Amino acid sequence: MPSRLLRLFLAAMLLASSALAKDVPLQVIEWPATGTPILRFSFSKPKQFTGMGTSREFSLDTTAQNLSAKLIPAAHFTIYLFDKNKVRIGQEVISVENVAPGESVKFQTNILASGTPVAISLEDAGSTARSVSMTVNSSPQGAMLKVDGNEAGPTPRMINVGVGKHILTFSKEGFNTGNFPLEISAADVSGGSVNYELGAAAFDTIEMRDGSVLNGDLVSISGLDVEFRVGGAIQHIDRNKIKRVMLVQRDVPATGLPPASTPTQ
After folding, report:
1. Residue 19 resides in a domain
2. Position 68 in a domain
3. Has residue 253 been placed in a domain?
4. Which of the residues 22, 51, 203, 258 has the least number of beta carbons within 10 Å of its own beta carbon?
5. Band (103; pLDDT cuts 50, 70, 90)
6. What is the C-alpha to C-alpha distance for residues 130 and 87, in angstroms, rounded to an integer?
7. Which domain range does residue 85 map to?
C-alpha cells in the first residue's frame, strides 16, 4: 500500500513538473540590448506542426511586454532560429502595435526552418532606422552644437536623431562646455525640443559699442581706462568705447596668516 501511494505521488510530481516545464519560455530577450529596455519578449519552445524533407514549420507562443512609460504605436523585429551548431536555420518578421505602458500582448509566430531550432535571436527590423526630428536650443543662443561628436551648427538648430542614446555637446566662447544625454525610444515622435542652459561663464565679458565682444579677466577700471587680460596679455581699453561689462563670480582667495603685530616698547 505505501509503495502504491509513493508511485501515485511520484506520478503526480512528474505531471506537475511537466506542466511547469511547458510554461517556462525557451528564451527571454529584452530590447534594446543596451541602455534602458523598452520591450521584453518571451518565446516558448518551438512546436513543429508540418514538415517535408529538411523543411519544417514551427509555431512559437510569443509574448511582448512594454517596459517603458510610453505607448508603443508600432515596432517591427526580425527573429532568427539557430540549431545546436549555432547555424541560422530560419527567420521571420514580427510586429507589435499600440502597446500601452506595462501592457503585454501574446501572439503566435509561425516560422519555416531547415532543421530543429534550439535558440532564438532578435533584431530591430525598422525602428532604429526611423529618425526623429527635434529642435535643440541653448541659453544663451548661438552655442555650437555637436551630436555624438559631429558638428551640427549653432543653436537654435533642427536635428534628426535615430532610436538610441545620444550626447549633445554645447560650447560657446566665454562659457563652460556642457553635455546633455538624450535617449530616443521607439515610441518617440517628431516635434520635441531640448533647451540647454549653458554653465556659468568662465571669463569676464566686455561688450564693445561696435558690437564686438572680449572674453578674459578684468584687472582694473579707472575713469578713462580699463585693464583687461586676454590670453595672458593685458589690454588697455578706452572706457568710452565700452558698452557693458559682465563679471563672473570668483572665489575669494585665501588671505593667509594675519601680519604679525609690532611689539610695543
Report:
1. yes
2. yes
3. no
4. 258
5. very high
6. 30
7. 2-124
How do residues 234-263 score in pLDDT, each as one tens digit?
889 998 999 888 787 666 555 554 544 444
Q: How many domains does the chain have?
A: 3
0.90 exceeded by the pTM? Answer: no
Report residue 7: phi and psi, to 5°. Answer: -65, -40
Could you write out the three-class secondary structure of the chain? CHHHHHHHHHHHHHHHHHHHHHHCCCEEEEECCCCCCCEEEEECCCEEEEEECCEEEEEEEEEEEECCCCCEEEEEEEEEEECCCCCEEEEEEEEEEEECCCCEEEEEEEEEECCCCCEEEEEECCCCCCEEEEEEEEECCCCEEEECCEEEEECCEEEEEECEEEEEEEECCCECCEEEEEEECCCCCCCEEEEEECCCECCEEEEECCCCEEEEEEEEECCCEEEEEECCEEEEEEHHHEEEEECCCCCCCCCCCCCCCCCCC
Residues 135 and 111 in one domain: no
Residues 182 and 220 occupy one common structural domain: no
Residue 260 lies in a domain: no
Last residue of a domain, one of 71, 98, 124: 124
Domain boundary among 197, 219, 235: 197
